[in-house]
Design a protein that fits this description.
- The protein is built from 4 helices and 7 strands.
- By secondary structure, it is of the alpha+beta class.
- The protein has a single domain (2-165), classed as Aminopeptidase (3-Layer(aba) Sandwich), CATH 3.40.630.
- It has a 7-stranded mixed beta sheet with strand order 1-2-3-4-5-7-6.
Amino acid sequence: MGEIRTATTADLARVEEIYAIAQRFMVASGNPNQWGPGFPGRRALEGDVATGALRVWVGADGVPAGCFALLEGPDPTYARIYDGFWIDDGPYLVVHRFAAAVQGRGVGSAMMDWALARARERGLALRVDTHRDNGPMQGLIRSRGFSYCGVIHLADGSERIAFCRPYIRP
């Protein structure tokens, strides 16, 4: 079906397109406030490429159709959680800036499954957050066994709901 690989600078223009498509989808599906136009910005993407955090899902045609950042914890925005608690307070990976250019074709599922497999291989929990209005992302998260943990605040003060898929120790 496709593969997930580490993004390169050659992918950046297409990745920006993917985020623009995803932002329009979010607006159309009742989530106009999570990402504004131009999110996440070229500088953030270049940083993700430089650190090897940015991943792309590439189909048989060789064109990226999805992207996300997979980062090592600890994440400073996860240091304080409100109205709940982290169900796994051990080491973790974080999925951020998760976007697909097409909906309903399994790209998001493939990307999340890949991230979960990396966490499992390393014996780590996987954390993710999203906007309250992002129903499609919440559906994907819940379908993959994540549990709601509480509310976190981004550096700009924006509220997000936070989820964790704990590492199941053998």
